[in-house]
Amino acid sequence: MRVALFLTCVNDTLYPDTGRAVVRLLTRLGVEVDFPPAQTCCGQAHYNTGYRHDAEPLAVQFSDVFRGYEAIVTPSGSCAAMVRELYPRMGERARAEGRGDALAATVAPVAAKTYELTEFLVDVLGVTDVGAYYPHPVTYHPTCHGLRSLRLGDRPVRLLRAVKGLELIELPGAEECCGFGGTFAVKNADVSSAMGVDKVRNAESTGAEVLCAADNSCLMHLGGTMTRLRVGMRPVHIAEILASTEKEPLV
Amino acid sequence: MSGTFLGMPAFPEAARKAVADETLRGNLRHATHTIRAKRARAVSELSDWAALREAGKRIKDHTLRHLDRYLIQLEEAVTAAGGTVHWAADAHEANRIVAELVKATGESEVVKVKSMATQEIGLNEALEAEGIRAYETDLAELIVQLGGDRPSHILVPAIHRNRGEIRDIFRSRMGAWGRPAPEDLTDSPAELAEAARRHLREKFLRAKVAVSGANFMVAETGTLVVVESEGNGRMCLTLPETLISVVGIEKIVPTWRDLEVFLQTLPRSSTAERMNPYTSMWTGTTGSGTADVPRAFHLVLLDNGRTDTLADQVGRQALRCIRCSACLNVCPVYERAGGHAYGSVYPGPIGAILSPQLRGTGSEIDASLPYASSLCGACYDVCPVAIDIPEVLVHLRERVVEGGPVTRAGNKVVLKPAKGHAAERAVMRAARWAFSHPGALRAGQRLASRSRRFHPRTLPGPGRAWSASRDLPALPAEPFRDWWQRTHGGKEAR
After folding, report:
1. Which domain holds residue B483?
2. Confidence label for B494 from pLDDT (cuts 50, 70 and 90)
3. Could B448 and A17 be called an inter-chain contact, meaning their C-beta atoms sit closer than 8 Å?
4. Where is the Cysteine-rich domain (chain A) (predicted)?
5. Which residue, of B270, B286, B306, is where some domain finishes?
6. What is the pLDDT of residue B452?
7. Residues B114-138: what's their mean pLDDT?
8. Shortest alpha-carbon distance between residue B12 and chain A (Å)
9. The pLDDT value given to residue B6
10. Are B27 and B365 a contacting pair, CB within 8 Å?
11. How many CB pairs under 8 A join A and B?
């Protein structure tokens, strides 16, 4: 199976380890991974901040870049939700504004075959035990778009439970937003920070070494809060945990 | 809307004070988490919750699509049942109508049933200016009124107060409004409730005029419905001689059968009860002459921005709202910012989409409300009429930054982009350009990576909002695309 990795602009620029982990993990599972270099950004920040018309060309570009693949896999719940849920909505809006079906028709094929990583593993590849080894206590934060847009449910947790050596500790108030929210983090920095601090304190109360999530943007906010509060925990993307094996442990 | 909210600062400034107020944070956290858990239990009891939610959404959408027809049907039914219907285009008109109706009775005081519509139009202040005193009789509204305060929650307007604060307000302020609180009043809930009961009983027995809102209006029979917990509503709706109800035009349901859906979803969503303790229904002055029905009934149908909201394809779903407050109780932003920061009698997620539509996005506070959300989607999940609040928030953000066509006072107008977004717009445009040119993006990433040793740990300008409370992520030695090019590049024709 030949799939395209849609890494996202944030991961490409700030978290290449997550990208390498996805490549390693999928390759290990027998998937042929390609990284189309013309990819950039899904346009989520534009769309969610009110710049829908600036997001449209990015949606078209995304569709052009990824059209030819069997599946598109991304290690980001919010970017997957952008493509799958909001691209079709942008198409509908363009139609309602009398701009025809072109946008809707362009985004429809890629929207249908875009998967968040854990969803791709469990639903498409049909695996929950990916042969990973990660001997650490971990707590998992389900990010909002994964939880409430994509309805990932217990998929990430099932994957983590199957990891050898990993002790999964339940996070109190897990379903509450971490406070990142894209531009919300700077537009309403005080509320955003207060939410982040509460999330970090909850994570700290579990005694886990690692706070895991399937979205690096939320982890960027929480990780930045952790170091500022001098909390001795690390934020780690789920892809990096699942890619780690006894032979090649995560460093 | 209520004049008491005029001149509010933008949401972020108002929220900053609330976030720093430990007592307020504690009060809100305790109250919202308690009711959040109770609601989840009450809803999980119903196996057909999803179907009820969908039915509620469809009934409301159908009614809104044919609102013109149902309003006329309602007017005819109310009139046939001995009531009088008045139409108010805006707050000013509604306040004038109510003030004239009260003056015509010769009375100078009214008792009030808790009502969002009358809060929205600032009725109490308008009546005060005409020499008419309005007494709130809902316990929480009484606390707010005695405290010279503003409501901070739709269902629990005094949610920001704890028992100790309430005792102090009762002890110091009740006497100025009527029967004083006992000298030795403690903060036990039973004692506080008893003090309020005795204070209010005097008002109920004396009042000749009552003012209410309504949760629903049934078009087929002209019946109004108030659901409540305390029984103060029942007192106001039955004891006085004249009843004036101010109701938003979106509160219609076509038939009694439709009501069945909402009488299940509203109490479970709001107070987490299977059924609310008091459901009062009245049809004009039907039954007048028996002791329990007012002799005169006036219905003031309030528009105040609702028709304009209805004209907007995306935003109109806000009019499905049945004012249950489930979205406030589940909202992590509301929990930390408190209700007052929203600058409206409608706080929380629903307020963030209602106020900028009913009032427009012209003021600083209204233009900032669509951003008062992390778009986490918890509000949409709990909404019993499936209002996609994040969708409307994003839509209103677009209205703020891009402007565009809207309906104001029944006229189609084209809004200009709001001021103060020029820098952000430039950044968004530049980002779009870079993202449309992968080569430019790569060049930017490389430059950032190679200069990473020189990056500051804190950001200047607007970036300070991030780095004041959070460290910046360290930049990697190279972006992923460069690693891919080095390791897999041979496979790719570039």
Report:
1. 422-491
2. very low
3. no
4. 3-83, 138-222
5. B306
6. 83
7. 98
8. 5
9. 64
10. no
11. 193
Q: Which of B267, B286, B306 is where one domain is finished?
A: B306
Q: What is the mean pLDDT of chain B?
A: 94
Task: Say what the pLDDT of residue A251 is.
Answer: 59
Interface check A66 vs B, CB under 8 A: no
Do the chains contact at B394 and A191, CB–CB below 8 Å?
Answer: no
pLDDT in tens, B360-370: 999 999 999 99
pLDDT of residue B292: 81
**Contact with chain B for residue A209, Cβ under 8 A:** no
Contacts of A148 in chain B (CB under 8 A): 376-378, 380-381
Task: Kindly state the average pLDDT of the residues B26-44.
Answer: 95
Interchain contact, B468 vs A189, CB within 8 Å: yes
Q: Give the gap in angstroms from C-alpha A241 to the nearest C-alpha of chain B.
A: 18
pLDDT less than 50: residues of chain A: none
Among B462, B473, B494, select the one facing A37 at the smallest CB separation: B494
Which amino acid, one-letter code, is at B468?
A: A
Asked if A179 and B462 come within 8 Å (Cβ–Cβ), the reply is: no
Residue B322 lies inside a defined structural domain of this protein:
no
| Inter-chain touch B436–A194, beta carbons under 8 Å | no
Q: What domains are defined for chain A?
A: 2-124 (3.40.50), 137-243 (3.40.50)
How much is the pLDDT for B493? 41
- Name the residue type at position A231: V
Chain A contact for B398, CB < 8 A? yes
Contacts of A197 in chain B (CB under 8 A): 469
